[in-house]
Write a structure and sequence with these properties.
Layout (H helix, E strand, L loop, with lengths): L7 H28 L1 H13 L6 H24 L3 H22 L9 H13 L9 H10 L1
Helix pairs in contact: 1-2, 1-3, 1-5, 2-3, 3-4, 4-5
């Protein structure tokens, strides 16, 4: 496809997908390779929430899995491969983060952290698949049709 033939909606989806993918990929990369999943779980899950009603085993499990999901799903969204399942995984992470923040602080102002990511995710999910033509999903689907 020639760049001048790409519709503005397609560019909008691509830009939103690239930004959202980078946000999650880079956060996941740091949490997996710099901080480490176990330290991530201890610092942001077990430490702050071990005195709540949540079972400690679930805090360890969730805290160690979240960085890997962010890294993997962020990369998939960035390149546009298996975009819908990756977006749904990231949506689940955002729901989890929102729950955690509100559990710790019921009036948590999540407009700086959660809402920009939610807005990008919902925008991408609401656009027709055909508008995401700058992606591996689109390219692979077209190859199957030819």
């Amino acid at each position: 496809m020639i760049l001048s033939q790409i519709h503005n909606r397609s560019w909008a989806v691509f830009i939103a997908r690239a930004i959202l993918g980078l946000i999650f990929f880079m956060a996941g990369y740091w949490k997996v390779f710099t901080l480490g999943p176990v330290e991530h779980a201890q610092r942001w899950f077990v430490g702050p929430y071990s005195e709540t009603f949540l079972p400690v085993w679930s805090l360890w499990a969730t805290g160690t899995v979240v960085p890997v999901v962010e890294l993997t799903a962020g990369a998939l969204v960035l390149i546009g491969l298996w975009t819908r399942p990756a977006l749904l995984a990231l949506g689940a992470i955002l729901i989890l983060v929102t729950f955690g923040h509100l559990l710790a602080e019921p009036l948590y102002e999540f407009h700086t952290h959660v809402m920009p990511r939610v807005a990008l995710l919902l925008f991408i999910l609401s656009m027709p698949d055909a508008d995401d033509c700058i992606s591996l999903d689109y390219w692979l689907a077209r190859r199957k049709l030819l």
